[in-house]
Amino acid sequence: MKIPLFPLDVVLFPGAPLPLHIFEERYREMFRRCMAEQIDFGVVRAQEDGLAVVGCTASIGRVMHRYEDGRFDVMCQGERRFEIELLDDTHAYLQAEVDFLPDDGPEATRAEREQCAALHFEAIELARLELPMPHLDLDKPIAFSLAAALPADLDFKQQLLDMRSDASRTRKLQEFYEVLLPQLRTSSPIRKVQGNGRVM
Question: Domain Lon N-terminal, which positions (predicted)?
Answer without folding.
Answer: 1-184
